[in-house]
Amino acid sequence: MQVNLETYKGIIFDMDGTLVNSMPLHLKAWQLTAEKFDFEYDEEWLYNQGGTPTYGIAELINAKQQRNLDPSALAVSKREFFDQIRHQVALIPETFALLQQLQGQKKLAIGTGADASTTEFILNTLDLLPLVDVVVNANDVERHKPEPDTFLLAAQKIGLTPDQCVVFEDTKTGLAAAQAAGMDCYLVINNKIARFVPKP
Predict the structure, then answer these.
(1) 70 tagged catalytic
(2) 29-56 burial, b if ≥16 CB within 10 A, otherwise e?
(3) Would the keyword Oxidoreductase be found if you checked this record's keyword annotation (predicted)?
(4) pLDDT tens, 53-88?
(5) Which superfamily does 10-22+89-197 belong to?
(6) What predicted TM-score, i.e. pTM, was given to this entire model?
């Protein structure tokens, strides 16, 4: 689709599923955790929780499936499985090309629900850190997506107001966060920039 960024001064990219093709790895880690702890693995539902920190997803699993599993144990298991395969992470060509094109033209930020260590590993592995001005991860905010805090802090750190920024996201949770922040959003679907959603 045609992407028009002329009216924005800042571009905020989600990381997993938007800039990097890591969602299959996260889902595999959840699948292995589901097998280990004997809970239902719902791939589509889990994908749409993208942007929510691991512990938060564990709590949501309990609520959705009316279980009483230890969220900390689920989160530790998922992170351990993910860490075993995270080196397989790869860039998403379309959004990465856009990020490269915007160098020197716009303020660039990453706003992710991943924890600090995972974010650092992925951005260093793919050499993305030098390409952005600011990174906000799950450790930087108390309220996570679908709350707006991640994107609001990213805008603040690049010195812009929400209406001067646009978000690139791939999940319903991320879109909700962008809308709550008062920002326009481009949705990435199947590794392609596919849909524009204006702020409410």
Answers:
(1) no
(2) bbebbbeebebeeeeeebbbbbbbbbbb
(3) no
(4) 999 999 999 999 999 999 999 999 999 999 999 999
(5) HAD superfamily/HAD-like (3.40.50.1000)
(6) 0.93
